[in-house]
Amino acid sequence: MADFLLVHGSCHGAWCWRDLIPALEALGHAAQTVDMPSHGSDPTPIAQVTLDSCRDAILAGSTPDTIIVGHSWGGYPISAAAEANPDAMRALVYLCAYVPRDGLSMVEMRKRAPRQMFADAVEKSTDGLSYTVRPDRVQELFYHDCPPETVPYSLARLCPQPIAPQDTPLALSKRFAGVPKAYIRATDDRTIPPEYEEEMSRVAQEGLRRVINSSHSPFFSHPGELAAILDDLAQELP
């Protein structure tokens, strides 16, 4: 049995893992979730959200036996957690996620992608502190292969994404490098270019890279298959 901590991406919350949790539990694993600051049920004001506070929310839910799974932007705060305290986790799994490069912010990493698939779908708040995703673009970006009820379920829960933590550079060292890592990339991702995911997946050893034929949200579209991949990785990770 493995202990998983599931970390959501931009504008989402712990609610997005609804279907993956029972699939993991059916395989004998334990799965915990976390709401990033200002997301889900977390009451933190958007103006107070930082990359460090996101990192700390993850560390608060992790133990030395925890495999931390970060989706999309979640790849950044899980990496920050590994840099801050590499002994607080067993391993990192990047799920269709950004893998930081030393000294770059997530915004800078996104701009280095070979194609921009997401930028024209976001609307910045009037105070410039956050952004939301245009409702008419949500399905094509995140959920195009998901069950029909996924869209209304998610639209009722998607929230503004603070910009500051995503625009904060992350310095990485041997502390981060020493944490075991795996990567799961999606072949039909319409948020992060699949070829960019393939490039970023090289942070993991070849034997710890996996592929799923899915959109950006395999936890909704293929929860059973995703759970099986995580089960397999749990057996392979140190």
TrEMBL record:
Keyword Ribonucleoprotein in record: no
All copies of domain AB hydrolase-1, residue ranges:
4-228
Give the Gene Ontology MF terms in alphabetical order: trans-permethrin hydrolase activity
EC class, as a word, reads hydrolase
Q: Which Pfam families match?
A: Abhydrolase_6
Q: Which residues cross the membrane?
A: none
- Report the superkingdom from the record: Bacteria
Keywords, A to Z, come to: Hydrolase
Q: Which InterPro entries match?
A: AB_hydrolase_1 (IPR000073), AB_hydrolase_fold (IPR029058), Sec-Metab_Biosynth_Hydrolase (IPR052897)
Q: What is this protein called?
A: Pyrethroid hydrolase
